[in-house]
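From the shared-data thread, chain only:
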Amino acid sequence: AKSILGDFYLDGRGVEQDKERALSLYRESAADGYLPAICSLGLCYETGDGVAEDKAQAVEWYTRAAEGGYAPAQTNLAYCFLTGIGMEAAPEKAIPWLEKAAEQGQARAQSLLGSCYRDGDGVEADAAQAAEWYRRSAEEGDARAMCNLGWCYESGNGVEQSWEEAFCWYRKGVEKGSTRAMFQLAWCY
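Structure, as tokens:
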């Protein structure tokens, strides 16, 4: 409950925004081993919310929650490996964390894994695997994955080319508010 209250203070939802109070609540919950709070501490250090920005410290908190099996932390840690946040970029180290989070249904991890397969980041490029991970993420409601899957169908990359499927996935992305999907859908017209 403290961690959830911390979210309210961090965002100023229903209470006056107080990032330091949010951080304090996250620390109390983290001391009890609550994985979402541990992950939230990582995000605070990554973004500098309520504390001095410290990307390396963010990685430490993400690692702790990721090792506990918390999918959002696994995704955040993987993103750090992919982009070099708080460390040297090492895409090959991101893949196992993305796989763990993706198998738990974490849409962002599924979408990132799709992009890794599309681009060959940390894995051998595989268009069919990319499309499959985009599909899983899109079915979980991720607008970016919907747009990427639409592109797969538009280009026939990893799937059989289909304007109808491309149109369908772009439209779903538009419904989720993706401006990129709006552009792609307009191009289809």
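Residues 54 and 160 are 45 Å apart (CA to CA).
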